[in-house]
Amino acid sequence: MRRHFAKVAGNDDDDDGGAGSVVWLGANFWSRTGGPLMWRNYDGAVVRQELQVLAEHGLNMTRSFFYWPDFQPEPDRLDEQCCAHFADFLQAHHEIGMSTIPTFIVGHMSGENWDPSWRAGRNLYTDVWFVNRQTWYIKSLTARYAAHPAVAGWLITNEVPIYGGEASRAEVAAWSELMVNAVLAGGGRQPVSIGDGAWGIETTGHDNGFSLTDLAPFVDFVGPHVYRMETDVLRQHLKAAFICEMASMTGQPVVMEEFGLSSDFVSNANAGHYYRQLLYNTLLAGATGWIAWNNTDYDAIVEQRPYSHHPFELHFGITDAAGAPKPALRELKAFTDTLRAIDLPRLQRAEVSTALVLTSYLAADYPFTQEEERTLIVRTAEQSYVAAHEAHLPLAVVRETEDGGLPEGYGLYLLPSIKALTGPSWLQLPELARSGATIYASYCVGETGAQRGPWWISTEEIFGVERQLVYGLNNPIRDEVVELTFNTDFGTLKAGDVLRFTAAGNAHARAFLPVTLTDGTVIATDAHGNPALIVKEHGAGRTVLCTYPLEYLASAQGGVNPEDTHRLYQALAAVACIGPTLELADPLLFVDSLLHPDGREFVVLVSQHAEPADVSLPADAGLRTLDGANVEALRLDPFGVAVLQR
Question: Which domain, by its residues, includes 420?
Answer without folding.
Answer: 354-575
